[in-house]
Design a protein that fits this description.
Layout: H1 3-8, E1 9-14, E2 17-22, H2 28-35, E3 41-44, H3 52-59, E4 65-72, E5 78-86, H4 92-105, E6 111-114, E7 120-124, H5 132-142, E8 147-154, E9 157-163, H6 167-180, E10 189-192, E11 207-208, H7 213-222, E12 226-228
Parallel strand pairs: 11-12
Antiparallel strand pairs: 1-2, 2-4, 3-5, 3-6, 4-5, 7-9, 7-10, 8-9, 8-12
Amino acid sequence: MDFNLEQKYRKSRKNGTIYVTTRSPVSAERQIELESGAGELYLNGIQRDYSVDQIMQVAHMLGDVYKLRFKIDFSGESRGFAYLQYIADHSMDCMLEILLLRFRLANLSIKVFPSRNIRRLLLNNVEEQLTPIQVYQKLRQMFNYIKLNVHEIRPQHYVYIILYRNNDDAAQAHHAFRTKIINFGTKAGVEWLGKGSRKKSDLSCCVQLQRDEMNLLEFTEKDHCCIRF
């Protein structure tokens, strides 16, 4: 990253992601929107030898970048995609068109799409001896999430739909599950649950509960439906 960009952005690396984030002040209201995924763009078709600096040189031409998440493999090379957000609330259609053109002019064969901001994970095949409240306690120790829906799809067999603040948080949680999944049973697995998916989640029977463990325990003993907390 050249000197001018280093003055405006900081670069860091965590797991399989290189982050480039703004050093500029952002209003609290706008930051909440951005951290929820507002205006996020999905960059696809990134060649293995393309660098973060090449993308930032182009992206910065359109305005102040809030965050770039550049996905890499174990060798440090691109996995083919990245996520980009601007501080300003630009027109999505306009940004898609102009950014694509800018990449072409820079001889970078990168495609630009609106990000789906997928932020739900599905935890399934949990060991039947674990009650929903026990799973809830384990999840709380792993990673922060916004909401947990527990569906009993048959007696004593539950699926857990976990909603995170944004795609980045969900991705980090998904990574954490790689080493923690054994805590939920030998057959347990976790997968992405995309927007519009009806898989195991289109159940109308749900009850909103407070985070009171005694109430949750009482509910799970007498009802076979869905717990939301």
